[in-house]
Design goal:
The structure holds two protein chains of two kinds. By secondary structure, chain A is of the alpha+beta class. Chain A is about 45% helix and about 10% strand. Chain A contains seven helices and four strands. Chain A has helices spanning about 5-10, 20-30, 35-45, 50-60, 80-85, 85-100, 140-160, and strands at about 70-75, 110-115, 130, 135. In chain A, about 25% of the residues are buried. Chain B is α/β, with parallel strands linked by helices. Chain B has three domains: about 1-90, Roll (Ubiquitin-like (UB roll)); about 130-205, Alpha-Beta Plaits, CATH 3.30.70; about 210-560, Rossmann fold (3-Layer(aba) Sandwich). In chain B, helix 8 crosses helix 10 and helix 8 (about 265-285) packs across helix 14 (about 420-435). The two termini of chain B are about 45 Å apart. Classes of the chains: A alpha+beta, B alpha/beta. The interface of A and B includes residues 40, 50, 56, 59 and 60 of A.
Chain lengths: ~160, ~575
């Protein structure tokens, strides 16, 4: 899918008021993968709302991200079943391994991570999902191995592209 | 009238009003924290909860309309316990550094903890790691001390129409921040400091310049001069326990000398000068088809507001510098030349009721040849701190007069401290410039008082001039929208950033209520009423400055020293 300019998205909402803020934020993120500063400034101008307000609303919701997604996007389930099965430790292990917090993207742009409330796979708890691929019963020891396998994938892809 | 029962006592209430208003009128003190007089209740802090018979749970009195026969207990054990718990929870992640806090003894949270008898830490909350925001030239933000009452957010958005801050994040990670949590300096903040005035804790304060000022005074190489704004002399007294509205001009001047300032000048003098230039500019614009309505330019928060939100109206702004900057420019030119001092040796301080003046003094166009017109700005509060620190007993001082050549002022210049004052002073002089005669009645009643927007029509020899005065930028925005929409009958508009004018500025004593602000305003009116020199153009010192140095209003030297320019500003807000 080709990302739409914020401007194009805003033309779909002529005469929009403040009640359109969240749908617009969602559409922009859907299209561009995250909410850039520029996008939020443009939305503010369109809706005649202060940017501080847009940023305040956007940071209230977990669904919005403020950095572009990495090539591999990791969803860490923190639902009840996963919590009972130790997902907090898995999240910590991922933070240590990637040196980022949930909602952030690694500097090389390879990984991004988000916390989701329940991914709907409670039988596999604790579960993480990387670009649609599920990992069941993840232990803290398994985390570096999983991440390494994706790092190799990224390196190979780069190699292929270079050749 | 509605009759209700409070604490087994019959109390009269006005239909439709909130219970809190009734209680206050009846002299029953229920503590509040998030409540802002004049704005709708937000009901966020629950500090004002009371028990109401027949209603479940505790009710916030700020947001509960009175109903006939309502039975209320304001200080039942349950209500008091709830309030105490709220304070204890607020303290759970509050830094315990009251002794080191700028708001020690002036802190609402501290007061509440005292009143409710909090004597131990019952809860310990997780603390987030926050950084001080020192980026602004006017305001320092310390999010660690913030209790999230939201009053700064509301004042900024609902009173000032600026909205440079809002709540960011959610739940226990909530905090107040600018867009993208950048520094205040790159936000749309206009530095007015109304957030500082309303903050219940020490989370917001002015950026202090005391250190630089003390250093300059101690430096024998420096000539340290000070100017004081019209609103300071009628406000400073409150810092020393005197009644609001007490004018201590002479004593303050004496105190400034004691503090070691080499010369003391009165900004009201340069307010007179501003009037000479501004009234001439107005007459010029009216006679020669210049851009109208002309708008005043004394209030630096307002100037930044126009530059960032109404750039299409920049041409409407008077090109006159503010009185602070005019006097600053004269100190480093006329005064320096006359005394034979190299301007780079002069350290020029101003005492202002304002935090935005700190920003204004730092504007790059406010100086010449790399030398700033004003080197440091202190608020009224900082001056009080200085006086206390140096152990000066105001009672024992003999009142003193400001120094020549910038010491004498008219009472018109003094009026600058209240909303409508610049307009009144300008009208007196514009009338004289247009007709050669003085106004029959110098007092211009329709533009006096606390109202947010005031309008009047003046007849000057057949010429009808429409004037308007607004204070508080929300009110100003209303007026600007009218002009944008094509309103033609206004010639001159005075805008003050803060509601009420400089008497209610962001650098004034903390904790003043509306009555105190009115008392300060009245003090200025009294000075004008009892004064003998009541128009700027009849001030002999002003005449002398023009004769001996400046030439004439709007002349070349004036243009060079006393006028400025503005530019559109891109900010993230």
């Amino acid at each position: 899918m080709i990302a739409l300019d914020t401007e194009e998205i805003l033309t779909r909402h002529p005469n929009a008021g403040r009640d359109s803020l969240i749908p617009i934020l969602q559409e922009v993120q859907e299209s561009q993968g995250y909410l850039s500063r520029q996008a939020m400034i443009e939305i503010g101008r369109h809706l005649n709302l202060p940017v501080s307000k847009i940023y305040g609303v956007a940071t209230f919701y977990n669904q919005f991200r403020f950095q572009p997604q990495g090539r591999f996007h990791i969803q860490v389930c923190r639902g009840t079943a996963c919590h009972v099965k130790g997902s907090a430790a898995v999240l910590d292990a991922l933070k240590r391994e990637l040196k980022i917090d949930a909602g952030q993207t690694t500097r090389d742009g390879v990984f991004s991570m988000e916390v989701v409330a329940c991914i709907g796979a409670c039988g596999l708890a604790p579960v993480i999902c990387i670009n649609g691929e599920f990992f069941a019963g993840v232990s803290t020891q398994a985390v570096p191995k999983i991440i390494d396998s994706y790092r190799r994938k990224a390196a190979n892809n780069d190699h292929d592209e270079a050749a | 009238m509605v009759t209700i029962e409070v604490n087994n006592r019959t109390v009269e209430a006005k239909p439709g009003e909130m219970l809190l208003s009734t209680l206050r009128r009846a002299g029953i003190k229920v503590p509040t924290m998030c409540n802002i007089d004049g704005l709708p209740p937000s009901g966020a802090c629950r500090m004002c909860v009371v028990e109401v018979e027949g209603r479940p749970g505790l009710q916030p009195s700020c947001a509960l309309p009175v109903t006939e026969g309502m039975k209320v207990q304001t200080h039942s054990p349950r209500a008091v316990r709830a309030r105490k718990t709220i304070v204890e929870l607020l303290l759970a992640n509050h830094p315990d550094d009251c002794l080191y806090c700028v708001r020690n003894n002036q802190c609402e949270l501290q007061n509440l903890a005292g009143e409710l008898g909090v004597r131990e830490r019952r809860y310990t909350g997780q603390r987030e790691e926050y950084h001080l925001d020192l980026s602004s030239p006017s305001i320092v933000r310390d999010p660690a001390k913030c209790i999230l009452c939201g009053k700064c957010v509301r004042v900024c958005a609902e009173i000032q129409n600026v909205a440079s801050i809002d709540f960011v994040g959610r739940g226990s990670h909530s905090r107040v921040g600018t867009a993208f949590e950048q520094g205040l300096n790159v936000s749309s903040c206009i530095n007015c400091g109304q957030c500082v005035m309303i903050c219940p804790t020490g989370a917001l304060r002015e950026k202090s310049a005391l250190k630089e000022v003390f250093e300059a005074i101690l430096d024998p190489e420096r000539v340290v001069v000070v100017q004081h704004a019209p609103a300071v002399s009628v406000s400073l007294a409150e810092e020393f326990g005197l009644r609001p509205g007490t004018d201590i001009n002479g004593v303050m001047v004496a105190a400034l000398r004691r503090l070691g300032f080499d010369r003391v000048f009165d900004t009201s003098f340069s307010a007179d000068l501003t009037i000479m230039e501004e009234a001439s500019e107005l007459v010029d614009r009216i006679k020669n088809g210049g851009k109208l309505p002309m708008m005043t330019s004394c209030s630096p928060g307002w100037i930044k507001f126009v530059e960032q939100f109404y750039p299409d109206m920049i041409e409407n702004l008077s090109t006159c510098k503010s009185p602070q900057q005019m006097l600053g420019a004269l100190i480093k030119s006329l005064f320096a030349e006359r005394e034979g001092i190299d301007p780079s040796r002069i350290f020029s301080v101003s005492i202002m009721p304002c935090t935005a003046k700190k920003f204004e003094a730092g504007r790059p166009e406010m100086g010449r040849h790399g030398i700033a017109d004003v080197d440091a700005v202190l608020t009224t509060r900082e001056l009080a701190r200085m006086i206390r620190l140096e152990g000066i007993d105001l009672q024992s001082l003999t009142p003193s007069e400001a120094d020549n050549p910038f010491g004498q002022r008219s009472t018109a210049g003094k009026l600058f401290g209240a909303t409508g004052g610049v307009m009144e002073a300008a009208v007196r002089t514009a009338h004289y410039l247009l007709t050669g005669r003085e106004l029959a009645e110098l007092k211009v009643q329709p533009i006096r008082g606390m109202k947010g927007v005031k309008k009047a029509k003046l007849k000057i020899d057949g010429l009808e001039i429409g004037i308007a005065v607004a204070s508080g930028l929300g009110n100003a925005a209303e007026l600007l929208e009218e002009v944008r929409a094509g309103r033609q009958d206004l010639h001159f508009i005075e805008i003050m950033t803060c509601s009420g004018g400089c008497v209610a500025g962001g650098g004034q004593p903390i904790g003043a209520d509306a009555a105190a602000v009115r008392a300060r305003m009245q003090a200025l009116y009294n000075i004008d009423r009892s004064g003998t020199l009541r128009t700027s153009h009849s001030n002999p010192d002003i005449k002398r400055v023009y004769e001996e140095y400046l030439g004439e209003p709007l002349g070349e030297k004036s243009h060079h020293l006393l006028h400025t320019h503005y530019a559109k500003r891109e900010v993230v807000g």
